[in-house]
Amino acid sequence: MGANTANFDPTRNYSLKLAACGLVVNFDASDFQISTNNFLPVSSGAWSVSTFENGLYLVYTASGSAAPTADYTWNVPTSGYWNGLNWAEGTPTALGNPAWTLTFGGNSTRYGSTNDLAGTFQLSNMVFNSSTPGTTNLIAGNPIEFGAAGGGIQQWGSGSFQVSNSISLAADMTFSGPGLGAVILHTNITGAGGIIKLDAGKLVLGGSNTFAGPVLVDGNGLLRVDNRKGLGLNSVTVSNGTLQVSSGPTTILEVGQPGINGLTALVTGSGSLWTNNAIFKLGTNSSFNTLTIANTGRMFNAAAVSVIGDTAPSNSAIVRDGGLWSLGASTLTVGTGGTATGNLLRVENSGVVTNAPLVIGASGGQF
Q1: Continuous H helices in 178-291
Q2: Measured between alpha carbons, how far is 297 from 324 in angstroms, rounded to an integer?
Q3: How many angstroms separate the first and last alpha carbons of the chain?
Q4: pLDDT per residue as tens digits for the range 293-302
Q5: Residue 34 vs residues 12, 65, 98, 250: alpha-carbon distances, Å
């Protein structure tokens, strides 16, 4: 492919999307013949072709890579309650276990799985492995807690899952796996941990989240945020992959929530942040927050407003070292309101800010 493969890790899973230009007639993915040694001198993985959401993906899967062994496996496609005969291994006990793995498969029949066990159910991993794109299975009911470091959600299939249970994070939760099906967390997430988004899949945060740990996007996939407080109460790093805000015109993405100071948002390397039509705010009644776009990182706004220092002082946006902030038709305002003093936009060392209707607030914004 001509790409720099110096940091290729054959123990991880990768996807490469192939896009066709123009009209393609009688296209058949089976026409592709893939050989590992055409790419890299490694024999520890396999290449395959997968279609998902109108895209064609070339997928590398590490050999020996496997989902965690299930402690409880849902009987597909049964719809029902956790406290019942709906698991292959029998009914799990109430409150669960912070070392357990629950696995949910799937086929073309949509189902719902409802936690009716008393209390908050603890687990380490939730594994999704449905073979059917276009089918979204539902996980609902009483709260769950990811209780073990290194645990989280793994997506191994092409079918989607929506989780509406309240979720708490005792430690950082990792989203990973080679599957391309979307996982939608349509719930509020609390707890001390953060979220680490790896691999090529799609994770959607739909709730008003107050988890205390940071967010990391690293792994070529997509993290989509559908709520202005979806990113929790800590800092955000997008180093490889895409953080995307849903495109509703009233959506707001906040870095630095009221009363929480000193957060950072870093977009770097192969990372990109797309706010679409969302209003982007750095510092909402909070100070000393910093947005940095650097090392060829990219941030794209569409037709909305971007604000550095909403009504609070001393927030900074820095575009440097080949970073790009493309504002489209968005107006960039540095400081709004009489108390928003000392807010700063700095562009240096080959950083680029394009298409920027720029407003420097009367309260003391700086460029």
Answers
A1: none
A2: 6
A3: 41
A4: 999 899 888 7
A5: 18, 19, 40, 45
